[in-house]
Predict the 3D structure of the following.
Amino acid sequence: MARRLSKWSLLLWIWAFASCQEAPLVQSVYSFHHDDWYADSAIVVDVNVTDSLAVYRVEFQVRHHAEYPYSNLYLFREIRSESQTEYQDTVEIRLSDAQGNWYGTGIGALKTLVLPYKQAGLRFPKTGMYRFRFQHGMRDQPLHGIRDFALTIEKEDLSTE
C-alpha cells in the first residue's frame, strides 16, 4: 500500500507542478503543404511583449522527413519591433552528421530538432509588438522534406538562480 501511495503522490506532485507553470507567451506551429517550403513563404509570428524587464527563452523546432535531401538548413531570421529591425541573421542548422545520421528525435521517418533562438535568454528593449520572421535560404524551390516549423517563447523563471 505504501508503494502505491508514493507513486500516486509523485504523479499528483508532477501534475500540480505542471499545472502551475505559466503558459507560453507564444506557441505557434506552421505546417507545410506536401512538405514543401517555398522561399517566398516566410513564417511570421507576431508577439505582444508586455514586460521589457523579463528574460524570455525562445526556441524553434524543425520537423523534417527522412527524405530531406540535405544535412543542413539555412534560415534567415529577423526580429522587428514597431519601429525598426532589432535582430537579423542567417544561421546554418545541422540536421545530420557526416554519415547521414539525423540529430533530431522521433520514431520512423519524421525527425524533430529543437533549437534555441540564441544561447542566452532574450530581452526585448521595450514593450509592444514584435514580429519574428523565418525564411529558408536553400536553393531548392520548393524545398522538399520540411514538415513543420514551430516557435515557442516563454518567460524564464529567474527566481531559482
In short: The helical segments are 2-20. Residues 24-155 form a domain with the Jelly Rolls fold (CATH 2.60.120).
